[in-house]
Amino acid sequence: MQQWLDQQLKALNLVDSMNQKDGFTRLGYSDEELKSMAVFREIAESLGLTVRGDEAGNLIARWDPQDEHLSKPAIVLGSHVDTVTQGGGYDGVAGVLCALGAMKALKDEKFEPDHPIEVICFASEESARFGISTIGSKAISGLLEPNNLADVQDENGVTIKEAVEQTGLSWSTIEQAERKKDEIKSFVELHIEQGTVIENAGAQFGAVSAVACPIRLKVTVRGKMSHTGTTPMGMRQDALVAAAPLISYISEQGEKLSNDSEHAIVATVSTISAKPNAMNVIPGTVELGIDIRSVDDGLKEQMAAMIKEKCQEIEEQHTVSIDIETLVNNPSVKLDAELMETLCELGEAEGYRGHIMISGAGHDVMNMAKKWPSGLFFIPCQDGLSHHPEEHATLEDLHMGVKLLMAYIKCQALVEKSLE
């Protein structure tokens, strides 16, 4: 199995070696994503699965029971193959790979499912191209808002609508990708952790209880442009000088709030733009992008309120004006508690040490959880490094992922049979 996983890992990443100094770039609805999804189709069909594409560009590989008269909801696995720019080859791909590996192993065992089993390769999970994440799983879950997204552009001026239609799909029918509630029994995603919580806990895998969705703010500080050589220090309205203490404040208060609270919170100034960004001009406008995450929505709101209060203080101190725009305010997603406990028990029954944890990053599972019982497995990644060319998960941990997903599928079938 490990040899098979190694071969298919490279195939899905479109490389002969995972050692790629510039990483992997497969943005959503790009030719590179389509090529990787074509490999997904080839692997799935070689395993005897039937594959179809939906109106949002998701690929769905399905294993139907031999008894064609059975009409039962599907047991579903899935993740994605798109990446950030110069990212790693395991984020997303590991989940797709292990799900296909579980299908292979079950077929090798002559397992006969009494439910359909599906592996979904979701389209455009990353926000790297358009700033909008999880487009494919939003469409399947009925959460997509096409009218609000159609004109969102990438850095080259290509809109989401144009990118989707360049793949041969029609934007006007993308909402038809939504699945009915009775089509799916439950959904589980396997993903690399993208952190070191599993390792620090002395465990081997994580069972996730909740996904911490963000509040994102855009803070615009407006001062006054003037000449750096002729404007006295005491007469300046320097927007960058005014913004600087806010950056350190957010880091310091985020850490303090996290230490003083039951749940963790993280707050980051992750983007900055100074205008006119010229060496001989005092910055007149500075824009900060701020990302706040916690599974406790009250903590996120508290941090956002503290930032707004600090901005009022800065306005008075530096004679600038500050506007705050809320770009995103998504409630965090609690995953199915019973399924989480089951995943943990199944892993430990396989001989692996589990750890119940939260996810600080968003995944397709957070959309699927809005409509179906959903769970998330984490396997370790080396040094917690992700979104980086050196992102890595061992073949042993990928094989563990296959075993965890196999156990989940068998459990779902046994539960159903026990009720008949």
Descriptive keywords:
420 residues; alpha/beta; Aminopeptidase; Alpha-Beta Plaits; 2 domains; four-stranded antiparallel beta sheet; 12 helices; 13 strands; globular; disordered C terminus
Structure, described:
By secondary structure, the protein is of the alpha/beta class. The protein folds into two domains: 299 residues, Zn peptidases (Aminopeptidase, 3-Layer(aba) Sandwich); 116 residues, Alpha-Beta Plaits (2-Layer Sandwich), CATH 3.30.70. It is built from twelve helices and 13 strands. Strands 1, 2, 3, 4, 5, 6, 11, 12 and 13 form a nine-stranded mixed sheet that branches. The protein has a four-stranded antiparallel sheet with strand order 8-9-7-10, covered by helices on one side. Helix 1 packs across helix 12 and helix 8 packs antiparallel against helix 9. The longest helix has 25 residues. It is globular. The C terminus is likely disordered.
Instruction: State the fourth-level CATH superfamily of the largest domain.
Output: Zn peptidases
Which spans of ≥5 residues are poorly predicted at pLDDT below 50?
415-420
Compute the CA-based radius of gyration.
23 Å
The oligomeric status of these chains comes to single chain
